[in-house]
Amino acid sequence: DAGVTQSPTHLIKTRGQQVTLRCSPKSGHDTVSWYQQALGQGPQFIFQYYEEEERQRGNFPDRFSGHQFPNYSSELNVNALLLGDSALYLCASSLGDKRYEQYFGPGTRLTVT
Amino acid sequence: SQKIEQNSEALNIQEGKTATLTCNYTNYSPAYLQWYRQDPGRGPVFLLLIRENEKEKRKERLKVTFDTTLKQSLFHITASQPADSATYLCALDGYGQNFVFGPGTRLSVLP
Predict the structure, then answer these.
(1) A26 contacts A2 by C-beta, under 8 angstroms
(2) How far is residue A46 CA from its own chain's centroid?
């Protein structure tokens, strides 16, 4: 039973560029949530996708966008990267449009230079 | 604005003792509260969930209490082991509110 997978593991981008991160949920899960975790802090909720729609969004600018595919996998896109976007980006999956008992992936470490 | 605090950034305890971690919140009406464990360089791992109408939950050596009047949750690890060393995060979710994680407490269990 595959858990949550994310790609790539690490990424280095330059300020102003755009990045796409990918996530495959745990088998049987249909909901994907994305989080940003800065060093030494707790994860911050970016948004949640369920039934291919963005259901809820945290306090993140429109530069952060996403998509969910029919197979429940998801992408996170960040445009016009800023130095402050450097963080660990975590994907979590769950069943139904709830956020309890979430299963997290290992994360993608994004560095913006 | 919504705020979650966890008692301290770091907590050191001796092996075999009970570790108690605190999660306090303001400006939030949670439907449920969760505790996660996070090891360095890895994603959080779900441990326990407690609902707003529950006072206590147990799972093996773990116990969580939830007091919505005090706006506080306590997380206990009994008979702690060095393998319990990690960062522990509390998280809140409520109807029509954002899902929010606390900053975490780094627990070190010393042999």
Answers:
(1) yes
(2) 7
Q: What are phi and psi of B84, to 5 degrees?
A: -80, -5
Chain B interface, best mutation among A26, A100, A103, A108, by max B CB count within 10 A: A100
Q: What is the dihedral of CA B6, B63, B10, B90, to 10 degrees?
A: -40
Pairing of strands A87-94, A108-112: antiparallel
Question: What is the C-alpha to C-alpha distance for residues B82 and A15, in angstroms, rounded to an integer?
Answer: 41
Cα Dmax for chain B: 44
Decide the pairing of beta strands B100-101 and B86-93. Answer: antiparallel
Q: Give the per-residue pLDDT at B31.
A: 87
Tokens 């003792």, located at residue: B17
Smallest CA–CA distance, residue B11 to chain A, in Å, is 15
> How many whole angstroms from its chain centre is CA B62?
10
Residues A45-66 have pLDDT tens digits of 999 999 999 988 999 999 999 9
Q: Is there a contact between B93 and A105 if contact means CB atoms under 8 Å apart? A: no
Pairing label, strands A74-78, A53-57: unpaired
Q: How far is residue A95's CA from residue A27's CA, in Å, rounded to a whole number?
A: 10
